[in-house]
C-alpha cells in the first residue's frame, strides 16, 4: 500500500469519492472521509469501502477556525498529507489552508474561471454556452480561484436539459479526478 495518505471531503452523494475509491492502482491510500452532513450519501459509500468517516457539524463549533483546528488535528493523527475535495460545500479557511498548503485539490463542474461557486452547471445552462466542462484545481482562499491543474471540455447540446448535461459532466469528473490524483501522487 502507498505511503501517501489522503482524505476526501464530501457533503453530498459521494459519486466522486466512489470514483476515486474504484480507481485501479490509486497511488495513495484514502484513510478518511470528512463530511459535514450526517445524511450525505458519501457516508454510506465510505462504509462500503471500509473508509473511516469523520462527521462534524460546523454549527456546533464557535467558529470556522475552531472546527478547522479539530479537522487538522484529526487529519494529522491519521497521517493525511493530501486532501481531495469532492462535492464539499464549504470554503476552506486559513487554518486548513496553512496546514495543507498546496496539498488540497478540488473538482469543479465548469471550465474555470467561468461559472465559479454553487450551481455551476445551472449557471452554464442558463448562460447558453456551447461548451462547459470540468476543472481540477488547487484550493486557495478564494472561491474556485486556485491554480488550475487540469480541465476537460464538455459540449452542451441543443436538446440538453440541466440533468443530461450534469450526467455528462459527472462522467468526465469520474475519470478525470482519479487520473489527476494519480499524476500528482507520482510527483
Summarize the structure.
Helix 1 packs parallel to helix 2 (41-49) and helix 1 (15-22) crosses helix 6 (162-186). By secondary structure, the chain is an alpha/beta fold. It has 6 helices and 7 strands.
Helix and strand topology:
Elements (H helix, E strand, L loop, with lengths): L4 E6 L4 H8 L6 E7 L5 H9 L3 E3 L8 H14 L4 E4 L8 H6 L4 E5 L11 H8 L3 E8 L9 E8 L6 H25 L1
Parallel strand pairs: 1-2, 1-4, 2-3, 4-5
Antiparallel strand pairs: 5-6, 6-7
Terminal residue distance: 17 Å
For the largest beta-sheet, the strand count, sense and barrel status come to:
7 strands, mixed
Number of strands: 7
For this structure, the CATH topology is: Rossmann fold
| Helical coverage, percent range | 25-40%
Could you state the order of secondary-structure elements as H and E?
Answer: EHEHEHEHEHEEH
Mean pLDDT: 95
Oligomer: single chain
The value of Rg in angstroms is 16 Å
Name of the top-level CATH class: Alpha Beta
In CATH terms, what is the architecture? 3-Layer(aba) Sandwich
Name of the CATH superfamily: Formyl transferase, N-terminal domain
Note the beta-strand portion.
15-25%
Structural class: alpha/beta
- Taking pLDDT < 50 over at least 5 consecutive residues as the criterion, the unreliable ranges are none
**How many individual domains?**
1
Number of helices: 6
Largest sheet: spatial strand order: 3-2-1-4-5-6-7
**Shape designation:** globular
Amino acid at each position: 500500500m502507498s505511503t501517501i495518505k489522503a482524505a476526501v471531503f464530501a457533503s453530498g452523494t459521494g459519486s466522486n469519492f466512489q470514483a476515486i475509491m474504484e480507481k485501479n492502482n490509486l497511488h495513495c491510500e484514502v484513510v478518511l472521509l470528512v463530511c459535514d452532513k450526517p445524511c450525505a450519501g458519501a457516508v454510506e459509500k465510505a462504509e462500503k469501502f471500509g473508509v473511516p468517516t469523520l462527521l462534524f457539524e460546523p454549527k456546533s463549533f464557535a467558529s470556522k477556525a475552531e472546527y478547522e483546528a479539530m479537522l487538522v488535528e484529526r487529519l494529522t493523527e491519521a497521517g493525511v498529507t493530501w486532501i481531495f475535495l469532492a462535492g464539499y460545500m464549504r470554503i476552506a479557511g486559513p487554518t486548513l489552508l496553512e496546514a495543507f498548503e498546496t496539498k488540497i485539490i478540488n473538482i469543479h463542474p465548469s471550465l474555470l474561471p467561468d461559472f465559479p461557486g454553487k450551481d455551476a452547471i445551472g449557471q452554464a445552462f442558463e448562460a447558453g454556452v456551447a461548451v462547459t466542462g470540468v476543472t481540477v484545481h488547487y484550493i486557495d482562499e478564494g472561491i474556485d480561484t486556485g491554480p488550475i491543474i487540469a480541465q476537460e471540455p464538455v459540449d452542451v447540446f441543443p436538446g440538453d436539459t440541466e440533468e443530461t448535461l450534469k450526467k455528462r459532466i459527472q462522467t468526465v469528473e469520474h475519470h478525470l479526478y482519479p487520473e489527476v490524483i494519480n499524476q500528482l501522487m507520482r510527483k
